[in-house]
Amino acid sequence: MTTNTATNTSTTTNASTSTNTATNSATDTPANPTRLDFGKSAPKAFRALIGFDAAAREGLDPALVELIQIRSSHLNHCAYCLHMHTNDARKAGESEDRLHMVAVWREARHFFTEKEQAALALTEAVTLVADGGVPDDVYTAAAARFDERELAQVLALICTINTWNRVALATAKVAGTDERR
């Protein structure tokens, strides 16, 4: 998720004094409350994140940028961002074969360069950092294929897509509704 300009309305519900009376007929459970529009509710933070995202991309191969964003979105189960970035990758000329193989890149290494493989491994380690940190071998492999500036850019990009994934998931963005201008 790169530049989201959602138009959802913001509501506040105090659980102790009000209830949501809408129900989902399939499960008879309360429907999800309307989520806030992050860009409108926190415009300075939103603009800062857009700036961070743009700065992170500087000097990186656009195909690599999309591969990183796609893999992080897979791991975070962010359908909104996954849909957006696979479409962006297609528009940039990425092949369907490679797009289908990103989720299983370790079993399909021949689809990706050594540099891309190192970036994908680093993306997984940073995205899943709570599961065991960033292993030395993963970091060393990335450091061997990127110069320091590029490696810092890749790390920044991994951080931005993880943040965008979390914003999209927290605000219940719907896949297929790319709201960028």
The whole-number mean of residue pLDDT values reads 84
Largest sheet entry: 2 strands, antiparallel
SS content category:
mainly alpha
Number of helices: 8
* Strand percentage: under 5%
* Major beta sheet, strand line-up: 1-2
State the shape. Answer: globular
Instruction: Please bin the fraction of helical residues.
Output: 40-55%
Number of strands: 2
What are the secondary-structure elements, in order, as H or E?
EEHHHHHHHH
Radius of gyration, CA atoms, in whole angstroms: 18 Å
In short:
It is built from 8 helices and 2 strands; from the N terminus they run ββαααααααα. By secondary structure, it is mainly alpha-helical.
Description:
By secondary structure, the protein is mainly α. 55% of the residues lie in helices and 2% in strands. The chain contains eight helices and two strands, in the order ββαααααααα. The protein has helices at residues 38-41, 43-57, 62-75, 79-91, 96-101, 114-127, 136-145, 148-170, and strands at residues 23-24, 29-30. It has a two-stranded antiparallel ribbon with strand order 1-2. β1 (23-24) and β2 (29-30) form a beta hairpin. α3 (62-75) packs across α8, α6 packs antiparallel against α7 and α6 (114-127) crosses α8 (148-170). The longest helix is centred in the last third of the chain and has 23 residues, at 148-170. The protein is globular, with a radius of gyration of 18 Å. Residues 1-32 have low confidence and may be disordered. This is Carboxymuconolactone decarboxylase family protein. Residues 43-124 form the Carboxymuconolactone decarboxylase-like domain. Residues 1-38 are annotated as: Disordered. It comes from Streptomyces sp. 900129855. It holds the Pfam family CMD.
